[in-house]
Amino acid sequence: MAETLTTAALTLKDIAREAGVSLATVDRVLHNRPGVRPDTVRRVREAIERNSFQPHVAAAELARGRARRFAFVMPSGPNPFMQQIEAYLGEMTAWLSARRLNVEMVTTDVFDASVLATSLEALSGDYDGVAVVALDHPTVRAAINDLVDAGTKVVTLVSDVPSSRRHHYVGIDNIAAGRTAGALVGRLVGGRSGKVAVVAGSQGLRDHAERIFGFNQVMASEFPDLSVLPVLEGRDEDARSEQLLARLLGRHADIVGLYNVGAGTQGVAKALSEAGRDKVVFVGHDVTALTRKLLLQGVMDAAISQNPGHEARAAVRVLLALARGEPILREQEKIRIDIVMRDNLP
Amino acid sequence: MAETLTTAALTLKDIAREAGVSLATVDRVLHNRPGVRPDTVRRVREAIERNSFQPHVAAAELARGRARRFAFVMPSGPNPFMQQIEAYLGEMTAWLSARRLNVEMVTTDVFDASVLATSLEALSGDYDGVAVVALDHPTVRAAINDLVDAGTKVVTLVSDVPSSRRHHYVGIDNIAAGRTAGALVGRLVGGRSGKVAVVAGSQGLRDHAERIFGFNQVMASEFPDLSVLPVLEGRDEDARSEQLLARLLGRHADIVGLYNVGAGTQGVAKALSEAGRDKVVFVGHDVTALTRKLLLQGVMDAAISQNPGHEARAAVRVLLALARGEPILREQEKIRIDIVMRDNLP
DNA sequence: CTCAAAATGAGTTGCGTACCTCAAAACACC
DNA sequence: GGTGTTTTGAGGTACGCAACTCATTTTGAG
């Protein structure tokens, strides 16, 4: 009827006694300090294992004295999604200061590899952890690896650099996101046949390219009655997206679905409404003030969302766990692909 | 270019100096201990506010000495969803013991108000916090209020008792969940007209009733071409659900959609397949091993899910924050209504 | 003004760890 | 056996707060 999930509360002193050594030696082993014979290390490690000893987080945190410093390297310029991440970080200030954590925002041009790399190098040594919205480029990869080598914990945020030795990636699987978008468009079109338009920022961006890849995968294999038109590159700008899409709608009367891969949503919506094509199934990304409105109006049918609040908090928690040497709760920190429709708007 | 999100690290000593009182007085104010003049209380509070002082969590935790005890009161009997919650709690053991938190599972018949109330009363005094999957009944409400009055922090889990004075509810808005199911069935049916079947555990269960309410709301207002058949009460049992649904399918050849409100999924799927009605749009709840398989096979079209791992962790975090007197990160602890289709299976 | 009650100050101890120093012991090598 | 080096022990201090005691001051009622 009752079952406990936790073990007895041992202390380092207990471990020392168990292993037949002094506190100092246990401390040396625990912090990988030199001057302990391999055999002794083993004995201590065994005692720790045997009792599944966990250092008391609070005591450790208190004893180390100095506060931890984390940096968030984010894109400069207005980007609603990034602004949301910043806002959610702002809501954590009480939580952060109660733990004596310093989080600093550093903005830079993340789309210029050398600028981004320089910004990253500049952080070296000063920070315990860095979260970065990264461009996947050899120069950036090298900068990340340098940080890691200097002992800084590094987390990539939203956009990954899988080839680097970053400790963790906080973000979604963009291929799966594209597949989800494809499934939604296909299903919501509901058996009709016709054409599907795709508007992206640029196919050069890793996340956009991956989404398109996943989208096409699903469309090709599961919805043969729908043909995907060539991707329009709107550069995430409203005006350009609107113009390109308006022209496309004019040329094809049988467009039944639309996938907007990135931003520029305002322009896309405008092109649709001005062409009187409200029936087109419209799937896009992210829940912002705008997409929220469009969903409620029925202009957009679904949004694929990666919870920005979750991403911000996960990045902080992961950096903290890494810095403390705690295990990461993978399940907790995994960012889900949310399907948001009018009735489950968060 | 760089901006800090946290304030200087003050200590209680600083606050005492600021307020012109001694450490002892600050301590009395902070812990609502008696023997401080109202005017002095005000001065101290102001100093705390003025400097937005946050007690160092680690120091406070270390100083209080004794570990905190939390109890999870869960339904006895096999229930995959509840088992998942327990499993996720189990994955947290390292996290819990590093913070010297004791979590105990207490199983009881949560569907019998007096039994549940007795179980709750039995916990009084022994625990700092209680999470309970609660039946909404006056007896239970009273038991919860008694716990609250005794100083125990109480969180309702999955199923709420809104009329009680519980500190927090960790779970989804079931009306919105039902609405979401309705929107999905309606949209995925794709313009065809016909009938829609609804299978529930019992309309006496608050969450099931709310889901059905939301479902009907959407069907009535937005999908007039679909008519909802009377609810089948399968009592969350496979055999009974299968039998009832099989009979219904036999009587109505024009069933195009199906909403399974609770468990009994196995039986529902079997009835569908044995009647050869694979084309029926099938929307249900929760991602389990079974529903995962059905989604991958294309038998189920979508599942409405409330992330059980998130619920388990949120309950612990909320209880901890309440016990510490920390603010709750509402956005973080809010449970979302997840739409899960084949391509975004977690 | 007196006296008890209330309010406040001053101080102590302990929580479990990190980090440091210094001395002592064990060891390796010739 | 002596030398120098490595390994280990013993102990201390600090971190910020909770919780407590006891002495002292202030306050208010009579």
Walk me through this protein's architecture.
The structure is a homodimer. With about 350 residues, chain A is α/β, with parallel strands linked by helices. The first copy, chain A, folds into 3 domains: about 10-55, lambda repressor-like DNA-binding domains (434 Repressor (Amino-terminal Domain), Orthogonal Bundle); about 65-170 and about 310-335, Rossmann fold, CATH 3.40.50.2300; about 175-305, 3-Layer(aba) Sandwich (Rossmann fold), CATH 3.40.50. The first copy, chain A, is about 50% helix and about 20% strand. Chain A has helices spanning about 10-20, 25-30, 40-50, 55-65, 80-90, 95-100, 115-125, 140-150, 175-190, 205-220, 240-250, 265-275, 290-295, 310-325, 330-335; strands spanning about 1-5, 70-75, 100-110, 130, 155, 170, 195-200, 225-230, 230-235, 255-260, 280-285, 300-305, 340. In chain A, strands 7, 8, 9, 10, 11, 12 and 13 form a 7-stranded mixed β-sheet that branches. Chain A has a 5-stranded parallel β-sheet with strand order 3-2-4-5-6, sandwiched between helices. In chain A, helix 13 links the parallel strand 11 and strand 12. Chain A is elongated, with a radius of gyration of 25 Å. The interface between A and B is large, with 76 and 75 residues. Chain B binds a DNA duplex (30 and 30 nucleotides) through helix 2 and helix 4.
Topology, element by element:
The structure is a homodimer of 346-residue chains.
Chain A: E1 2-4, H1 12-19, H2 23-30, H3 38-50, H4 57-64, E2 68-75, H5 80-91, H6 93-98, E3 101-108, H7 113-123, E4 129-132, H8 138-149, E5 153-157, E6 168-170, H9 174-189, E7 194-200, H10 206-222, E8 226-228, E9 232-233, H11 238-251, E10 255-260, H12 265-274, E11 281-285, H13 289-297, E12 302-305, H14 308-324, H15 330-333, E13 338-340
Parallel strand pairs in A: 2-3, 2-4, 4-5, 5-6, 7-8, 7-9, 7-10, 10-11, 11-12
Antiparallel strand pairs in A: 12-13
Helix pairs in contact in A: 1-2, 1-3, 5-14, 7-8, 9-10, 11-12
Chain B binds a DNA duplex (30 and 30 nucleotides) through α2 and α4.
